[in-house]
Amino acid sequence: MNELASPPSRRVVAIAVFDGVEVLDVAGPMQVFSTASRTRGSAQYEVVIAAAERGAVRTSGGMTLLAERTWDDLGADVDTLVVPGGLQDDGDRYPLIDHGLVTWLRTFAGVPRRVVSVCTGAHMLAAAGLLDGRSATTHWSTADLLAAEHPEAEVASDAVFVRDGHVWTSAGVSAGIDLALALVAADHGEEVARQVAQWLVVYLRRAGGQHQFSALLGPRRSVSDRLEALLSWIPEHLREDLSVETLAARVNVSPRHLSRLIREEMNTTPGALVEGMRLQSAVDQLLHSDAPLSKVATASGFGSVTGLHRAFARKYKVSPGEYRRRFSTRPDLDRHPSL
């Protein structure tokens, strides 16, 4: 279906909220749709907040939202349903599951043209069975949990957002803005989305995926200065010899000592660490450029397309080309059949 053909005069976007919802999961997309309506007269969105009951809804950040409708009030006028995320208050950063919302989703999800989740909201879509047989993403910190609890879903842990049919899912928190911009682009074209992004002072498409936050920032919180320096140096030298001997010489320790440091502080091996960073570089290029696989392999340090394929098979169980086709955020990908 051509989403740009015969657009309705007004698109109703319903955001289904609950106590403990992440405030930016709601406010980010809401602001995108509001700005789109002010940017161009034909891009008219009506955003409504719905909850189990009308009235005040507590957010995780302390802000109170006002639900003007209940979930059961929503009907066929809803064009897009947004399910934001939240975390439990137990300190373990476990996704919050509102079981009432999950039950309602099972009956209502077939009504709107699109069903969207932001951040850990994907866990509620999965609990409702809406991700069965679909590709999806969520916050990087819960991606492994989503894959383990719902093996029927294919989790793209590095993607900023994923579209699979009428179901769209986004990565953590602010990625809901990226997804909302993509929805505006699908409804009204790239230029309108670009104007919205410019007004909000955000990128229309951010560079890099979630791994830039999970793989690099996460471990650095607890590593020694020696490994910190190495983690900063490796991404800038992916095309060079990164054997354990080379890395050890870089930080003036023996290969055996470096292996022990990496095992104790990062629970991995030097080889796995390097391959992970090379994979991260390759994924970023695949998702955000049209570079051929040979250039991706060279730039990320795999040396050959064969080496790139082997690494992707080990980590993602798909080829680099298939990964790009499934998860690229570039709408013009179908114009590059050789990718």
What report would you give on this structure?
The chain has helices at 23-39, 99-108, 121-127, 143-149, 175-188, 190-200, 211-214, 225-233, 244-250, 255-266, 270-288, 293-299, 305-315, 320-327, and strands at 11-16, 45-51, 55-58, 64-67, 69-70, 78-83, 114-117, 135-136, 154-155, 161-164, 167-170. The strands form three sheets. The protein has a seven-stranded mixed beta sheet, with helices on both faces. It has a two-stranded antiparallel ribbon with strand order 3-4. Strands 8-9 form a two-stranded parallel sheet. It has two domains: 11-200, Rossmann fold; 215-335, Orthogonal Bundle (Arc Repressor Mutant, subunit A). It starts with 10 loop residues before the first strand and ends in a 12-residue tail after the last helix. Helices cover 42% and strands 13% of the residues. By secondary structure, it is α/β, with parallel strands linked by helices. Strand 10 and strand 11 (167-170) form a beta hairpin. The chain is elongated.
